[in-house]
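Supplementary Data S3. Sequence and C-alpha cells for construct A.
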Amino acid sequence: MAGIYIHIPFCKQRCTYCAFYSTTLYNIRERYVKALCQELVMRKEYAGSETVETIYLGGGTPSTLSMEQLKMICDTIYATYHISQAPEVTIECNPDDLTPEFLAQLKELPFNRISMGVQSFNDTQLKRLGRRHNADKACQAVKNARDAGYDNISIDLIFALPGSTITEWEHDLDCAIALQPNHISAYNLTYEEGTPMHRALERGDFAELSEEENIEQFQMLIAKLKEAGYRHYEISNFAKPGCESRHNSSYWNDTPYIGCGAAAHSYNGTSRQWNIADIQEYIKGMESGEHNFEIEQLTEEERYNDTILTRLRTADGLPLEWMKEKFCDRLNRHMQRAAEKEIALGNLKEENGSLSLTEKGIFISDAVIRELIYI
C-alpha cells in the first residue's frame, strides 16, 4: 500500500474551472473530520499489513481546516496505519492561507511537502479563474513556506487560459522559475461541463485558444523548465532531481492506495472503489457506521488499459518484461503490434527495455495511447 489520499472538499469560494467535488458548507467541517477519521479506522484492513509510504491531503482546500482538525486526521492515520520511517506527507494549500503564523503551527504536524495552487501570475486571469489570491500573495506564500523550513514545495500552473498570449505565458513561467519550487505541475485548461468557465465559453464570453496556440504554450513549458533544470517526468509534471511526487507516481505505477472522504477513490490492484460524492450523505453514513461507496471489479483488459493510460504518461514508460509478467500474451501481442506502428511514425521509442513517448509523441499523447488501448 503506497499511499493514503484524504479528500478535504471545503473551499472558501469555488474556482470557475474546477470540477472536483467541493463545498462551501463550512459549518460541518468538524462533523466531516470526525466522519473522515472514523472511515480511516473502519478501513484499516484495506491496507492490510502494507507500509504506507505517502500521505496526501487534497481537495478542495485542506488549508481551510483548523490546526486541531488537521492534527486529528494526522493522529488517526499514524495511530491506525503502519507508516514508513520517511514518508512523503503532502498538504494542498491556497497561497492566501500560507501566513507565517499558519506555517509555524503546521510545522508541528507531519507535513513535509506543500503543494499550492498558484495557477497564474496574471491578476486578471486569477480573477477570471475565481482564485482568492493575487500574484504577489503567491510569491509571498512560497517565501513564507521556505522561511518556515519547508524544502519540498510544489506549485500548480494552468496554461492556454482564455485570451492568453505566448508572452503572458512566458511571464508566468519566468515568475515560477524565479521562485525555484522543487516541483511544478502544469495543466492545459479544460472546460469541464457544468463549471462556470464552461458556461461562459458556451455563452461566447470568450473563445477557446486554438490547437496551435495550445501546442505553442506546451512547447514553451517543456523547453523553459528543462533549461531551468526540471525533469519532465510525467506529461504534466516537472521536478528538480529527486523531487518527483512519490504519491502521484504511485497512481501512474499501478501501486495500491486508499482514498478516504467524500468522493475519494481507492485502488487495490484488482478493483476500484469510490465514496459517495455527497458530503451530507457521507457524514450520515459514517455516523451510523456504514461505508457508502461503489465498487468496480476490473477485468484484465481494463487493468491493461489503465496501465497504458497511466504509464505511457511517464518518462519511464512501459517496462516490457513487467508487462509480460502482468498481462496475457494476447494483450502483449496487441501492445507490440500497435507500438511498432507508433515507433515507425516516430511517436514511441523503445529504450532500456521500456516503451515511452518521444518528444514528438508527447504532443499527441492521447492519440498514441488510444492506439495501444485494447478495445
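Construct B, processed identically:
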Amino acid sequence: MHILSKNGRRVAVVAIAALGVSSLAACSSPSGSNGSAESDGTYSIAVLLASSQNGYNQAVAEGVQKAADSLDGKFDITVLDGGFNADTQLSQMETAGVGEKYDGIVVVPFDGPALAAAFPLANGIPVTTALNPIGPDIEEMEPQVEGVVATVAVPAGEAAAKQAEGVVEYCADIDPCKVALLVGQLNAPLDVTREAAYRKVLEPEANIEIVATVEGNYDPDLSSTAISNVLQANPDINVVLSNADQQTEGAQIALEDAGIDPSTVYLTGGGGTSKSIQNVRDGVWKADYINFPVSMGKAAMEQLYNALTGGDVTSFVNADEVGEVDPYATKETLDETPDYTGEWVG
C-alpha cells in the first residue's frame, strides 16, 4: 500500500523476512509516528543483496527485518537477488532509483566501485550500504557518492591484515611455513583487496612461503576441491588463510579426506558462523574473524530510517563494533564469552 507522506510524496519501506524470493512484504505495528510517514503510512525499502542464496547476505537481510520490527511505522520489504553479478546489481539499483516505488534502499554490494555508476539516483532516495562501501575507494568508509547516507562496514584490507598477522605469529618458529590463501573470488574488488592485504603482511616474512592462492567462491564444496588440489603438491601445508568460514569448512574437509588432522594446521576463516565459533572453541580451527551480519543489517536499516525521518544519521558505522565480542577470535578470547554462539549459521 502507498499513501502520501506529510511532504507530499509516496512513502514505502522494504524490510526482509526471508530470502530466495524476489519480493515479500512484512509489517511491524507502529507504536506511534514520527518523521515523514503518516501514522497509517508505509515505508517501502528495497534490499539489494549481492546474492540471496548466500548465508551472509541472508543474515544481513534478517537484521534489516529485525530493525523494521523495532521501529515506529509500517514497512514493505522487497528483496532483490544480485546473483553475485555486478551488472545485475547495477541494473537493480538504477531501476530502484527511478520513480516512486521505493523510499529507500539497503544494499550489500557485490562490486562497490562498479555500483557507483548508478549514482546519483534519479529519484534521490537515500541508500545505506553494508559490508562494502560504494565508490572508487573500497577502503574509504565515509560515503563517496551522492545519495549514500551511511556505510556499515570495516576497511577490508585492515581486517585482512589483522587475520594475516595471526598467521605470522603462528609461523614464527616454523621454517618454511607453507601457506595457502583461499579467497572468495579472485576478480571481486573486495577479495582482491583482501588478497593484497594478506600478501603485504606475509610476503616480507622470510620464513613464510605462499604456496598457492585459490578461489573458494564462498562455497564449502568448491573450497574442498581447491584445497585438495593444493594438498597434492603440498601435503605438508601449515596454514590455510581464508576470508570466509564456508571456505574454511571446505578446507577442513579436504584435510580430513587427505588423512591430515585439521587441528595440526592453522585454519582460520571469516564470518563468525555458529559452526566456526565452535570449531575455534574445540581447537579444530586456530582463529576466526567474527562478523556480525545481523547487527550490520540492523544498523543499516536504522540509519536509513533516520535519513527518511529527519533523524541524525551516522555516516560510518564500524561493523567490528556492532557485535557482542572481540571480532578477532581465538579459543582464549572465546573462553571469555562462553555463551556466545554467533549471529548466523552459514
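The first strand starts at residue 3 and ends at 4. The two ends are 34 Å apart (CA to CA).
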